[in-house]
Specification:
Bound molecules: iron/sulfur cluster
Number of helices of chain A: 17
Order of helices and strands of chain A: HEHHHEHHEHEHEHEHEHHEHEHEHEHEH
CATH superfamily of one domain in chain B: Nitrogenase molybdenum iron protein domain
Number of strands of chain B: 16
Distance between the termini of chain B: 15 Å
Shape of chain A: globular
Strand content of chain A: 5-15%
Strand content of chain B: 15-25%
Largest sheet of chain B: 6 strands, mixed
CATH topology of one domain in chain B: Rossmann fold
Helix content of chain B: 40-55%
CATH topology of the largest domain in chain A: Rossmann fold
Radius of gyration of chain B: 23 Å
Number of strands of chain A: 12
Strand order of the largest sheet of chain A: 10-9-8-11-12
CATH architecture of the largest domain in chain A: 3-Layer(aba) Sandwich
CATH class of the largest domain in chain A: Alpha Beta
Oligomer: heterodimer
Structural class of chain A: alpha/beta
Shape of chain B: globular
Distance between the termini of chain A: 38 Å
CATH architecture of one domain in chain B: 3-Layer(aba) Sandwich
Number of domains of chain A: 3
Structural class of chain B: alpha/beta
């Protein structure tokens, strides 16, 4: 029986790409979608993903044509045109981003044509077609960025060698994107760069405008935004540095800093001083807690990851290289394109550990829950690094659990990040607190 | 048009009940027009994202015990079910049942080529996979916007799979997001599919069991309500999340039924009434003191236990009224704007009146001029209040169009905004206006429920430091032009 299951998805549909537009301050998405498409993407990317929502624009004020049966018959572009006009008048925005979903796409509504009527208007009107049947929110994110590159960016008058655009992090989808980008910005500034980030507070369209003027682009992710970096290289000649994960903890953070410093020819002394100081600080706090950690004999040592590729690579590197945990298997749930699978597998295995472990690419988030049904935890338990979906089985079997990816869960994420040295301590706090909570089990 | 278990696809609320999503005027006018059958809908040119029937159909179906739901759609259409799964997993299981787990919702994963070549094989495989993995006692196939537009035949796949797997595989259609502007149409589609699966082949019992069935989202609050029904000789059966197949069968033998509200429950209650002779009480909902007394006496009389019913009411009153009165002094004279789903909007309008508050305007997310009535004398609860209690309030109907509600908030300047989901309350608080997200269902039933509402309201007024600070920093997402428009200027009238 050729039966493939697909449940507990850890991505939203393509329309979820509108959250990338929403992450650009004062950029208003305009939806040419069914009435529920926003709701269908907003839990995995918003409310259930660390209690996030739009800040300039709450979900409930995002305009939509609410595509209906009549539109299937008559087409919905006329109503879309009208709505764009209303939006220009009635919202306070710097940029408009039209997105469409499945139904509009199937009946052949042309959102590009609708947008073109506003070409040359004071506030840019961009568009991207994001139907769920073409892919998930990570694809949607890439479409939105590609639309910005193709429809909006103009060559800069000059470049600033110190300016670096930061790509790779998928805003909202990565539940800790806001805190991570703030921390990354601070770190790169210390190293002597001028980081340019388009998502988050007080950045907005002005930073989008600056993209072509960068000395280089940094893609800090296993694979997302690599195609954008390639395209920007073609368009503006901007070179890029690919660092394969958003680093957590001393080993990867130091490697990251050194890569950037070498690449951009920055002051090595400043970097090494910083690394030394931060590493000392990290181990100071670890040593302070280690007698307690050590005494908790039942803290699990093996772990399973069930998460998006970005979270998986970051967590595996830190858990193995710095915490000395043992990888059991890794499920990659973000629909990583086939052509990148080998690269991700290789990235995951590039750790200080000689044994092999399974890497499984699947959009079936329930595979993990299914796999542990018959596992024997009576001698030894494991850690689970996943999302809200995994919390339920983790609780059932009293497994140590840390949420690392969308849907992060119904808890406030705030400015929390696992990035860097400080973030690594946050991770340890979460990990060992949860391990301690689940340590006593009559089953043992 | 009432209910019909032979429908392949249940007609949307707009067609079945004449329900609307656009109105401005007064409750008494709307209710009167509704009862006469001449209520006209209004559409709007300028609108924001709303909510979808498909989403609600699936979360209700998947909440049931021992089921798997296969969504015949792109995977993204079930992207938000984690919200319900996580909430469900946290709720207390019914007595004797194992802890609640993740919902079992699979996707057939319609992709681009399927939109051209069809996806029946994919659907079959998804159904098989759901069966192999979860061994459900029944499987629902949910149709979606995409499967509807490309013309997929879920019906025949369901029949084939039933045969192959030996468990009921039931199509759940009619909840496609593009079919209805009213997300409650998804509740109807759930009620219809669950009834077809669980009740269609049941034999009508000649003698009813002394029990009453409650149709609602969740059984929260059950432990407080169950003893009250016991006093008039009735067991309580909850057809809510976690309801088993057996619960449905027991419900078919119960004497009476009622629903948490007209939106979620009317179709299933009406099936119980029409097919099994279970009396559906729909005109009086049991919220607040007034609501509870009318409702509970209706039931007590029906089962011939009026005296016991009166005694229960007196005892509940004695227990809670003094406490309520104490808080009432602090609430008296305060003004409110309400924005909620169809039934609760007007339930709370009456409840706030009971607590001495004045409702300046009520927004309902849709309005049903009638429910799936089998007896013409039964009116929707809001209309009953208009005729029985002379309840009236300036009112409007919008499908969670918070930009409209926001203009009303500015116009009426209420002391508090009472909302339920869909962000009307958040929107108010960010502008410095106190707000509260109200509860619904068994938890707010009766005098205990009224006391709970009073306590929550008291707290909502008592402290608003954060709200005030939000207000000082508020930046409107709208232009000055919009902020100065009149509410309802985007409406245009349409024949139903
Ligand atoms: S998959 Fe298509 S119909 Fe479903 S939510 Fe996404 S865009 Fe809407």
């Amino acid at each position: 029986m050729n039966a493939t299951c697909s449940e507990q998805h850890r991505t939203a549909c393509g329309v979820g790409g509108l959250f990338t537009a929403l992450a650009i301050e004062r950029c208003l998405p305009i939806m040419h979608c069914g009435p529920g498409c926003f709701g269908n993407v907003s839990a995995t990317l918003g409310s259930m993903n660390g209690g996030q929502s739009g800040e300039t624009y709450l979900g409930s004020v995002i305009p939509s044509t609410n595509f209906c049966e009549d539109d299937v018959v008559f087409g919905g572009t006329e109503r879309l045109r009208k709505l764009i006009g209303e939006c220009e008048k009635y919202y306070d925005a710097d940029m408009f981003f039209i997105v469409d979903g499945c139904t509009a796409e199937i009946v052949g509504d042309d959102i590009g044509e609708a947008a073109s009527e506003w070409a040359g208007s004071e506030k840019p009107v961009l568009y991207a077609s994001l139907p769920g049947f073409k892919g998930n929110n990570v694809r949607g994110h890439e479409q939105v960025l590609s639309a910005i590159a193709e429809q909006y960016l103009k060559p800069a008058r000059g470049t600033d060698p110190k300016q670096v655009n930061i790509f790779g992090v998928v805003p909202f989808f990565d539940p800790m994107w806001a805190g991570s980008l703030d921390a990354l910005e601070e770190l790169l500034t210390r190293m002597g760069l001028k980081p340019n980030i388009i998502y988050g507070r007080e950045r907005g369209v002005a930073n989008v405008d600056k993209i072509p003027a960068a000395g280089f682009n940094l893609v800090i992710a296993p694979w997302t935004d690599l195609s954008l970096a390639e395209r920007l290289k073609e368009m503006f000649g901007t070179p890029y540095l690919h660092f394969d994960n958003l680093p957590i903890g001393p080993t990867e953070t130091a490697r990251f800093i050194r890569s950037v410093v070498d690449y951009a020819d920055l002051d090595r002394g400043v970097a090494e001083d910083y690394i030394k100081r931060e590493e000392d600080r990290f181990y100071y706090y670890m040593r302070r807690s280690y007698p307690w950690i050590f005494s908790c004999k039942n803290f699990p040592r093996k772990f399973i990851v069930n998460a998006a590729s970005a979270a998986a690579v970051s967590v595996v590197r830190f858990a193995v290289n710095d915490l000395g945990l043992i990888p059991s298997r890794v499920y990659i749930t973000d629909g990583t394109p086939k052509e990148h699978e080998d690269m991700i597998s290789e990235q995951l295995r590039r750790v200080d550990y000689d044994e092999d472990f399974d890497v499984i690419f699947t959009e079936d988030g329930g595979l993990f829950e299914e796999s542990i049904k018959n596992e024997d935890f009576s001698i030894r338990k494991i850690c689970v690094f996943g999302s809200a979906w995994d919390l339920v089985p983790a609780k059932k079997y009293k497994l140590t659990f840390v949420s690392v990816a969308a849907p992060y869960g119904d808890r406030m994420v705030g400015s929390r990040t696992y990035f860097g040295y400080e973030g690594a301590l946050r991770f340890c706090e979460d990990l060992y607190a949860n391990a301690a909570d689940n340590i006593v089990d009559p089953g043992i | 048009m009432a209910v019909d278990l032979n429908w392949k696809t249940i007609p949307a609320r707009e067609q079945r009940l004449g329900s609307i999503t656009g109105y401005d005027g007064t409750l008494s006018d709307m209710a009167t027009q509704g009862c006469k059958g001449c209520l006209r809908d209004k559409r709007r040119d300028f609108q924001t994202a709303s909510s979808c029937a498909h989403h609600h159909m699936i979360n209700q179906l998947a909440g049931l015990r021992d089921v798997a739901v296969v969504d015949h759609a792109p995977t993204g259409c079930i992207g938000s079910q984690v919200f319900f799964s996580s909430g469900r997993a946290k709720t207390e299981p019914p007595p004797g049942a194992p802890p609640m787990e993740n919902v079992r919702i699979m996707s057939s994963g319609i992709d681009e080529s399927d939109t051209i070549f069809g996806a029946a094989e994919k659907l079959k495989n998804a159904v098989r996979a759901a069966y192999v993995r979860h061994k459900p006692r029944e499987i629902y196939i949910a149709t979606s916007c995409v499967s509807a537009v490309i013309g997929e035949d879920a019906e025949s796949v369901a029949a084939e799979m039933s045969e192959e797997l030996g468990v009921p595989v039931v199509p759940a259609t009619g909840g496609e997001g593009l079919r209805s502007k009213i997300w409650a149409s998804g509740f109807d589609a759930y009620c219809h599919a669950a009834s077809v699966a669980r009740l269609k082949d049941e034999i009508r019992a000649e003698h009813k069991k002394p029990a009453i069935s409650y149709v609602g989202f969740a059984p929260m609050g059950r432990r407080h309500i169950e003893p009250l029904f016991k006093r008039i000789g009735l067991d309580l059966i909850c057809l809510t999340a976690a309801a088993s197949i057996e619960d449905f069968k027991r419900a078919a033998e119960s004497a009476a039924t009622w629903g948490q509200c007209g939106a979620q429950s009317s179709y299933l209650c009406s099936v119980l009434e029409k097919e099994f002779g279970v009396r559906y009480f729909q005109s009086h909902l049991p919220y607040g003191g007034v609501g509870f007394e009318r409702f509970f006496l209706d039931i007590a009389r029906f089962v011939g236990r009026e005296e016991d019913g009166r005694r229960v009411i007196e005892e509940e009153k004695a227990k809670y009224l003094p406490k309520i009165d104490k808080i009432k002094r602090r609430l008296e004279g305060k003004t409110a704007l309400i924005a909620m789903g169809a039934s609760f909007a007007y339930e709370y309008t009456r409840i706030l009146g009971e607590l001495g508050m004045k409702v300046l305007h009520t927004v309902a997310y849709h309005y049903d001029p009638k429910l799936d009535n089998l007896r013409p004398e039964e009116r929707v609860a809001a209309a009953t209040d208009v005729f029985e209690l002379k309840l009236d309030v300036p009112t409007s109907v919008n499908d969670a169009q918070q930009q409209e509600t926001n203009l009303l908030t500015k116009k009426y300047k209420p002391d508090i905004v009472l909302s339920r989901a869909h962000e009307a309350g958040v929107f108010a608080q960010l502008q410095g206006i106190p707000a509260m997200d109200a509860e619904i269902g068994l938890i707010v039933m009766g005098y205990r429920g009224l006391y709970r509402v009073a306590v929550l309201l008291e707290e909502a007024f008592l402290m608003n430091n954060l709200v005030k600070k939000f207000g000082e920093r508020y930046v409107s997402p709208f232009s000055a032009l919009y902020e100065n428009t009149e509410p309802f200027q985007f409406y245009r009238e349409e024949a139903i």
